[in-house]
Design brief:
Growth Hormone, Chain: A, 390 residues, globular
Length: 390
Protein backbone atom coordinates (compact mmCIF):
# COMPACT_ATOMS: atom_id res chain seq x y z
CA UNK A 1 0.00 0.00 0.00
CA UNK A 2 2.80 2.40 0.93
CA UNK A 3 4.61 1.64 -2.32
CA UNK A 4 1.44 2.32 -4.30
CA UNK A 5 0.95 5.71 -2.65
CA UNK A 6 4.65 6.56 -2.98
CA UNK A 7 4.47 5.83 -6.71
CA UNK A 8 1.28 7.88 -7.03
CA UNK A 9 2.71 10.92 -5.23
CA UNK A 10 6.16 10.79 -6.90
CA UNK A 11 5.41 12.64 -10.18
CA UNK A 12 5.98 16.41 -9.97
CA UNK A 13 2.92 18.47 -9.13
CA UNK A 14 0.70 15.69 -7.73
CA UNK A 15 1.09 16.59 -4.05
CA UNK A 16 0.58 20.30 -4.77
CA UNK A 17 -2.54 19.57 -6.80
CA UNK A 18 -3.99 17.44 -4.00
CA UNK A 19 -3.33 20.03 -1.30
CA UNK A 20 -4.53 23.12 -3.16
CA UNK A 21 -7.55 21.44 -4.77
CA UNK A 22 -8.60 20.31 -1.28
CA UNK A 23 -8.67 23.95 -0.17
CA UNK A 24 -10.68 24.78 -3.29
CA UNK A 25 -13.35 22.31 -2.15
CA UNK A 26 -13.90 23.68 1.35
CA UNK A 27 -17.24 25.20 0.20
CA UNK A 28 -18.55 21.61 0.09
CA UNK A 29 -18.58 21.45 3.88
CA UNK A 30 -19.19 25.10 4.73
CA UNK A 31 -21.65 26.73 2.34
CA UNK A 32 -24.82 24.67 2.88
CA UNK A 33 -24.63 24.60 6.68
CA UNK A 34 -23.64 28.26 7.04
CA UNK A 35 -26.43 29.26 4.64
CA UNK A 36 -28.95 27.35 6.76
CA UNK A 37 -27.80 28.96 10.00
CA UNK A 38 -27.39 32.47 8.59
CA UNK A 39 -30.83 32.53 6.94
CA UNK A 40 -32.44 31.08 10.08
CA UNK A 41 -30.81 33.79 12.17
CA UNK A 42 -31.85 36.39 9.60
CA UNK A 43 -35.50 35.37 9.25
CA UNK A 44 -36.19 33.43 12.45
CA UNK A 45 -37.55 30.50 10.42
CA UNK A 46 -35.71 27.17 10.21
CA UNK A 47 -38.31 25.97 7.69
CA UNK A 48 -37.57 28.85 5.32
CA UNK A 49 -33.81 28.44 5.84
CA UNK A 50 -34.14 24.76 4.95
CA UNK A 51 -36.06 25.60 1.79
CA UNK A 52 -33.34 28.07 0.78
CA UNK A 53 -30.67 25.39 1.12
CA UNK A 54 -32.96 22.94 -0.70
CA UNK A 55 -33.47 25.13 -3.76
CA UNK A 56 -29.74 25.84 -3.77
CA UNK A 57 -29.01 22.10 -3.94
CA UNK A 58 -31.70 21.44 -6.55
CA UNK A 59 -30.47 24.23 -8.82
CA UNK A 60 -26.92 22.91 -8.45
CA UNK A 61 -27.97 19.38 -9.41
CA UNK A 62 -30.02 20.62 -12.38
CA UNK A 63 -27.37 22.96 -13.76
CA UNK A 64 -24.33 20.71 -13.30
CA UNK A 65 -24.80 18.74 -16.57
CA UNK A 66 -25.33 21.99 -18.49
CA UNK A 67 -22.02 23.32 -17.18
CA UNK A 68 -20.37 19.99 -17.95
CA UNK A 69 -21.53 20.07 -21.56
CA UNK A 70 -20.36 23.66 -21.93
CA UNK A 71 -16.92 22.74 -20.57
CA UNK A 72 -16.64 19.75 -22.91
CA UNK A 73 -17.63 21.85 -25.92
CA UNK A 74 -15.59 25.00 -25.26
CA UNK A 75 -13.06 24.15 -22.57
CA UNK A 76 -13.19 25.11 -18.90
CA UNK A 77 -11.99 28.73 -19.06
CA UNK A 78 -15.27 30.59 -19.72
CA UNK A 79 -17.35 28.39 -17.43
CA UNK A 80 -14.88 28.81 -14.57
CA UNK A 81 -14.84 32.60 -15.00
CA UNK A 82 -18.64 32.72 -14.83
CA UNK A 83 -18.81 30.42 -11.82
CA UNK A 84 -16.15 32.49 -10.07
CA UNK A 85 -18.13 35.73 -10.48
CA UNK A 86 -21.84 34.89 -10.05
CA UNK A 87 -21.71 33.08 -6.65
CA UNK A 88 -19.35 35.76 -5.31
CA UNK A 89 -22.13 38.29 -5.96
CA UNK A 90 -25.20 36.17 -5.09
CA UNK A 91 -23.76 35.01 -1.75
CA UNK A 92 -23.03 38.63 -0.84
CA UNK A 93 -26.66 39.46 -1.66
CA UNK A 94 -27.83 36.94 0.96
CA UNK A 95 -25.10 38.09 3.37
CA UNK A 96 -26.42 41.67 3.25
CA UNK A 97 -30.10 40.65 2.96
CA UNK A 98 -30.83 42.05 6.42
CA UNK A 99 -29.39 45.56 5.96
CA UNK A 100 -30.81 45.68 2.42
CA UNK A 101 -34.27 44.65 3.64
CA UNK A 102 -34.59 41.96 0.98
CA UNK A 103 -37.75 39.88 0.75
CA UNK A 104 -37.88 36.10 1.11
CA UNK A 105 -38.37 35.83 -2.65
CA UNK A 106 -35.18 37.78 -3.33
CA UNK A 107 -33.22 35.51 -1.00
CA UNK A 108 -34.56 32.45 -2.81
CA UNK A 109 -33.58 33.90 -6.21
CA UNK A 110 -30.06 34.58 -4.92
CA UNK A 111 -29.86 31.01 -3.58
CA UNK A 112 -30.92 29.62 -6.96
CA UNK A 113 -28.21 31.66 -8.70
CA UNK A 114 -25.65 30.48 -6.14
CA UNK A 115 -26.49 26.80 -6.56
CA UNK A 116 -26.79 26.91 -10.34
CA UNK A 117 -23.36 28.47 -10.86
CA UNK A 118 -21.27 27.11 -8.01
CA UNK A 119 -17.73 26.41 -9.26
CA UNK A 120 -17.69 22.77 -10.49
CA UNK A 121 -14.43 22.03 -8.70
CA UNK A 122 -15.03 18.35 -7.91
CA UNK A 123 -16.12 17.61 -11.48
CA UNK A 124 -13.09 19.42 -12.92
CA UNK A 125 -10.72 17.65 -10.51
CA UNK A 126 -12.06 14.21 -11.41
CA UNK A 127 -11.83 14.98 -15.12
CA UNK A 128 -8.24 16.13 -14.60
CA UNK A 129 -7.40 12.81 -12.89
CA UNK A 130 -8.90 11.00 -15.88
CA UNK A 131 -6.64 13.02 -18.20
CA UNK A 132 -3.55 12.71 -16.00
CA UNK A 133 -3.54 8.92 -15.67
CA UNK A 134 -4.18 6.37 -18.39
CA UNK A 135 -3.50 3.42 -16.08
CA UNK A 136 -6.64 2.37 -14.22
CA UNK A 137 -4.75 1.33 -11.10
CA UNK A 138 -3.34 4.86 -10.77
CA UNK A 139 -6.83 6.24 -11.41
CA UNK A 140 -8.17 4.04 -8.63
CA UNK A 141 -5.67 5.57 -6.22
CA UNK A 142 -6.44 9.09 -7.46
CA UNK A 143 -10.20 8.68 -7.17
CA UNK A 144 -9.88 7.02 -3.75
CA UNK A 145 -7.78 9.92 -2.45
CA UNK A 146 -10.33 12.28 -4.01
CA UNK A 147 -13.14 10.56 -2.08
CA UNK A 148 -11.16 10.85 1.15
CA UNK A 149 -10.56 14.57 0.58
CA UNK A 150 -14.29 15.09 0.04
CA UNK A 151 -14.97 13.27 3.32
CA UNK A 152 -12.47 15.58 5.02
CA UNK A 153 -14.27 18.58 3.52
CA UNK A 154 -17.56 17.34 4.96
CA UNK A 155 -15.86 16.79 8.34
CA UNK A 156 -13.66 19.89 8.67
CA UNK A 157 -16.15 22.28 7.05
CA UNK A 158 -18.94 21.87 9.63
CA UNK A 159 -16.36 21.89 12.43
CA UNK A 160 -15.06 25.24 11.19
CA UNK A 161 -18.61 26.60 10.91
CA UNK A 162 -19.33 25.48 14.48
CA UNK A 163 -16.14 27.16 15.72
CA UNK A 164 -16.94 30.44 13.98
CA UNK A 165 -20.47 30.44 15.38
CA UNK A 166 -19.12 29.74 18.87
CA UNK A 167 -16.64 32.65 18.78
CA UNK A 168 -18.60 35.02 16.53
CA UNK A 169 -21.95 34.45 14.73
CA UNK A 170 -23.69 32.56 11.95
CA UNK A 171 -23.24 35.64 9.75
CA UNK A 172 -19.47 35.43 10.28
CA UNK A 173 -19.48 31.76 9.32
CA UNK A 174 -21.44 32.61 6.17
CA UNK A 175 -18.89 35.29 5.36
CA UNK A 176 -16.10 32.72 5.56
CA UNK A 177 -18.10 30.39 3.29
CA UNK A 178 -18.29 33.29 0.80
CA UNK A 179 -14.50 33.64 1.01
CA UNK A 180 -13.90 29.92 0.37
CA UNK A 181 -16.34 29.89 -2.55
CA UNK A 182 -14.83 33.00 -4.13
CA UNK A 183 -11.31 31.58 -3.75
CA UNK A 184 -12.20 28.18 -5.25
CA UNK A 185 -11.53 28.96 -8.93
CA UNK A 186 -8.29 30.92 -8.35
CA UNK A 187 -7.07 28.07 -6.13
CA UNK A 188 -7.85 25.54 -8.87
CA UNK A 189 -5.59 27.43 -11.25
CA UNK A 190 -2.90 27.83 -8.57
CA UNK A 191 -2.95 24.06 -7.99
CA UNK A 192 -1.19 23.49 -11.30
CA UNK A 193 -3.61 20.74 -12.30
CA UNK A 194 -5.13 22.68 -15.21
CA UNK A 195 -2.00 22.01 -17.27
CA UNK A 196 -3.09 18.37 -17.46
CA UNK A 197 -6.44 19.32 -18.94
CA UNK A 198 -7.19 17.94 -22.41
CA UNK A 199 -9.93 19.51 -24.50
CA UNK A 200 -12.59 17.16 -25.85
CA UNK A 201 -12.03 16.10 -29.47
CA UNK A 202 -14.04 18.09 -32.02
CA UNK A 203 -16.98 16.44 -33.72
CA UNK A 204 -20.72 16.24 -33.95
CA UNK A 205 -22.41 16.34 -30.57
CA UNK A 206 -25.59 14.51 -29.61
CA UNK A 207 -28.39 15.98 -27.51
CA UNK A 208 -28.24 13.16 -24.94
CA UNK A 209 -24.45 13.24 -24.68
CA UNK A 210 -23.15 10.57 -22.26
CA UNK A 211 -26.70 9.44 -21.51
CA UNK A 212 -26.55 7.42 -24.72
CA UNK A 213 -24.17 5.01 -22.96
CA UNK A 214 -26.17 2.20 -21.35
CA UNK A 215 -23.39 1.34 -18.90
CA UNK A 216 -23.29 4.92 -17.62
CA UNK A 217 -27.05 4.88 -17.05
CA UNK A 218 -26.63 1.77 -14.91
CA UNK A 219 -23.83 3.44 -12.94
CA UNK A 220 -25.96 6.56 -12.36
CA UNK A 221 -28.94 4.46 -11.21
CA UNK A 222 -26.75 2.47 -8.81
CA UNK A 223 -25.18 5.72 -7.56
CA UNK A 224 -28.61 7.19 -6.85
CA UNK A 225 -29.66 4.10 -4.89
CA UNK A 226 -26.43 3.98 -2.88
CA UNK A 227 -26.40 7.69 -2.02
CA UNK A 228 -30.05 7.47 -0.99
CA UNK A 229 -28.74 5.17 1.74
CA UNK A 230 -26.19 7.86 2.70
CA UNK A 231 -28.91 10.51 2.93
CA UNK A 232 -31.14 8.34 5.09
CA UNK A 233 -28.19 7.55 7.36
CA UNK A 234 -27.56 11.30 7.82
CA UNK A 235 -30.98 11.68 9.46
CA UNK A 236 -31.07 8.27 11.17
CA UNK A 237 -28.12 9.08 13.44
CA UNK A 238 -29.60 12.34 14.78
CA UNK A 239 -32.85 10.40 15.16
CA UNK A 240 -31.09 7.88 17.40
CA UNK A 241 -29.60 10.71 19.45
CA UNK A 242 -33.03 12.27 20.01
CA UNK A 243 -34.56 8.91 20.93
CA UNK A 244 -31.87 8.33 23.56
CA UNK A 245 -32.27 11.86 24.91
CA UNK A 246 -28.66 12.62 23.95
CA UNK A 247 -28.75 14.78 20.78
CA UNK A 248 -24.94 15.09 20.65
CA UNK A 249 -24.71 11.43 19.68
CA UNK A 250 -26.18 12.21 16.24
CA UNK A 251 -23.24 14.30 14.97
CA UNK A 252 -20.82 12.02 16.83
CA UNK A 253 -22.04 8.94 14.96
CA UNK A 254 -21.88 10.81 11.65
CA UNK A 255 -18.27 11.73 12.46
CA UNK A 256 -17.41 8.10 13.32
CA UNK A 257 -18.96 7.01 10.03
CA UNK A 258 -16.94 9.64 8.13
CA UNK A 259 -13.69 8.54 9.77
CA UNK A 260 -14.42 4.96 8.74
CA UNK A 261 -15.08 6.12 5.18
CA UNK A 262 -11.77 8.01 5.03
CA UNK A 263 -9.82 4.98 6.29
CA UNK A 264 -11.65 2.66 3.90
CA UNK A 265 -10.95 5.00 0.99
CA UNK A 266 -7.22 5.17 1.78
CA UNK A 267 -7.03 1.39 2.07
CA UNK A 268 -8.91 0.85 -1.19
CA UNK A 269 -6.70 3.30 -3.03
CA UNK A 270 -3.52 1.58 -1.90
CA UNK A 271 -4.37 -2.05 -2.71
CA UNK A 272 -4.67 -3.80 -6.03
CA UNK A 273 -7.64 -6.16 -6.29
CA UNK A 274 -7.52 -8.45 -9.31
CA UNK A 275 -11.31 -8.74 -9.38
CA UNK A 276 -12.69 -6.26 -11.97
CA UNK A 277 -14.45 -3.20 -10.58
CA UNK A 278 -17.75 -4.37 -12.10
CA UNK A 279 -17.55 -7.48 -9.91
CA UNK A 280 -16.28 -5.62 -6.84
CA UNK A 281 -19.16 -3.14 -6.65
CA UNK A 282 -22.03 -5.56 -5.92
CA UNK A 283 -19.97 -7.05 -3.10
CA UNK A 284 -18.98 -3.67 -1.67
CA UNK A 285 -22.57 -2.41 -1.59
CA UNK A 286 -23.98 -5.68 -0.26
CA UNK A 287 -21.34 -5.70 2.50
CA UNK A 288 -22.24 -2.09 3.29
CA UNK A 289 -25.76 -3.30 4.11
CA UNK A 290 -24.47 -5.80 6.71
CA UNK A 291 -23.33 -3.37 9.46
CA UNK A 292 -26.34 -1.19 8.58
CA UNK A 293 -28.59 -4.16 9.37
CA UNK A 294 -26.72 -4.55 12.65
CA UNK A 295 -28.03 -1.11 13.67
CA UNK A 296 -31.52 -2.62 13.82
CA UNK A 297 -30.49 -4.83 16.75
CA UNK A 298 -28.34 -2.30 18.62
CA UNK A 299 -29.55 -1.26 22.04
CA UNK A 300 -27.59 1.91 22.68
CA UNK A 301 -24.99 4.35 21.40
CA UNK A 302 -21.89 2.36 22.28
CA UNK A 303 -23.16 -0.68 20.39
CA UNK A 304 -23.76 1.47 17.30
CA UNK A 305 -20.30 3.10 17.29
CA UNK A 306 -18.43 0.07 15.85
CA UNK A 307 -21.27 -0.54 13.39
CA UNK A 308 -21.13 3.10 12.19
CA UNK A 309 -17.38 2.78 11.72
CA UNK A 310 -17.70 -0.55 9.87
CA UNK A 311 -20.37 0.86 7.56
CA UNK A 312 -18.15 3.86 6.85
CA UNK A 313 -15.32 1.59 5.73
CA UNK A 314 -17.38 0.62 2.67
CA UNK A 315 -18.58 4.10 1.66
CA UNK A 316 -15.50 5.60 0.00
CA UNK A 317 -14.51 2.34 -1.76
CA UNK A 318 -18.03 2.05 -3.21
CA UNK A 319 -18.00 5.64 -4.44
CA UNK A 320 -14.47 5.22 -5.80
CA UNK A 321 -15.62 2.19 -7.80
CA UNK A 322 -18.51 4.23 -9.21
CA UNK A 323 -16.13 7.03 -10.22
CA UNK A 324 -13.78 4.57 -11.92
CA UNK A 325 -16.66 3.22 -13.99
CA UNK A 326 -17.79 6.71 -14.98
CA UNK A 327 -14.21 7.48 -16.04
CA UNK A 328 -13.96 4.23 -17.99
CA UNK A 329 -17.25 4.46 -19.87
CA UNK A 330 -17.44 8.23 -20.44
CA UNK A 331 -16.91 9.09 -24.13
CA UNK A 332 -13.97 11.44 -24.63
CA UNK A 333 -16.27 14.09 -26.09
CA UNK A 334 -18.43 14.09 -22.92
CA UNK A 335 -15.90 13.37 -20.15
CA UNK A 336 -16.79 16.35 -17.95
CA UNK A 337 -20.53 16.05 -18.51
CA UNK A 338 -20.39 12.38 -17.54
CA UNK A 339 -18.96 13.33 -14.15
CA UNK A 340 -21.58 16.05 -13.69
CA UNK A 341 -24.40 13.54 -14.22
CA UNK A 342 -22.75 11.43 -11.53
CA UNK A 343 -22.75 14.47 -9.22
CA UNK A 344 -26.44 15.04 -10.02
CA UNK A 345 -27.23 11.42 -9.13
CA UNK A 346 -25.34 11.84 -5.83
CA UNK A 347 -27.06 15.09 -4.84
CA UNK A 348 -30.55 13.87 -5.73
CA UNK A 349 -29.94 10.52 -4.07
CA UNK A 350 -28.79 12.10 -0.82
CA UNK A 351 -31.68 14.57 -0.94
CA UNK A 352 -34.24 11.82 -1.55
CA UNK A 353 -32.74 9.71 1.24
CA UNK A 354 -32.82 12.60 3.71
CA UNK A 355 -36.41 13.46 2.83
CA UNK A 356 -37.68 9.88 3.03
CA UNK A 357 -35.53 9.06 6.06
CA UNK A 358 -36.71 12.16 7.90
CA UNK A 359 -40.34 11.24 7.32
CA UNK A 360 -39.69 7.69 8.56
CA UNK A 361 -37.84 8.87 11.67
CA UNK A 362 -40.66 11.23 12.59
CA UNK A 363 -43.34 8.58 12.15
CA UNK A 364 -41.71 5.25 13.03
CA UNK A 365 -38.37 6.02 14.68
CA UNK A 366 -34.70 5.96 13.66
CA UNK A 367 -34.55 2.22 12.94
CA UNK A 368 -37.06 2.63 10.11
CA UNK A 369 -34.62 5.02 8.40
CA UNK A 370 -31.87 2.42 8.87
CA UNK A 371 -34.13 -0.14 7.19
CA UNK A 372 -34.39 2.24 4.23
CA UNK A 373 -30.57 2.44 4.19
CA UNK A 374 -30.34 -1.34 3.93
CA UNK A 375 -32.91 -1.53 1.14
CA UNK A 376 -31.21 1.28 -0.80
CA UNK A 377 -27.75 -0.28 -0.49
CA UNK A 378 -29.05 -3.66 -1.66
CA UNK A 379 -30.89 -1.97 -4.54
CA UNK A 380 -27.60 -0.37 -5.59
CA UNK A 381 -25.89 -3.78 -5.42
CA UNK A 382 -28.65 -5.33 -7.54
CA UNK A 383 -28.40 -2.55 -10.14
CA UNK A 384 -24.63 -2.90 -10.33
CA UNK A 385 -25.04 -6.58 -11.17
CA UNK A 386 -26.10 -5.42 -14.64
CA UNK A 387 -22.56 -4.10 -15.11
CA UNK A 388 -21.17 -7.42 -13.91
CA UNK A 389 -23.21 -9.38 -16.47
CA UNK A 390 -21.87 -7.19 -19.25
Amino acid sequence: MLKQYAAFLRPPGILRFLAVSFLARLPIGTLGLSTLLHVRELTGSIAFAGSVVGVQLVSSAAMAPVLGRWIDAQGPSRALKLTAIVPAVSILVIYFAGPLGLSHAAIVVAAIATGALLPPITTIVRTIWRHRFDDERARQTAFAVDSVLIELSFTLGPALVALLIAIASARTAYGFAWFFTTAAVPLLYLSGGMRWWKDAPPGRRHLLGPLRERDLLVVYAATFALTMAFGSLEVAYPGFGLQWGMPAWGPALIAVNSVGSAIGGLAYGGVHVKLPVEKQLPWLMALFAVPLAGHLFAGGPWTIVPLAFAAGLLIAPSMTGMTILVSRHAPAAYATEAFTWSATAIVTGIGAGMAAGGALVERFGAKSAIALCCVSALAGAALSLAMRRR
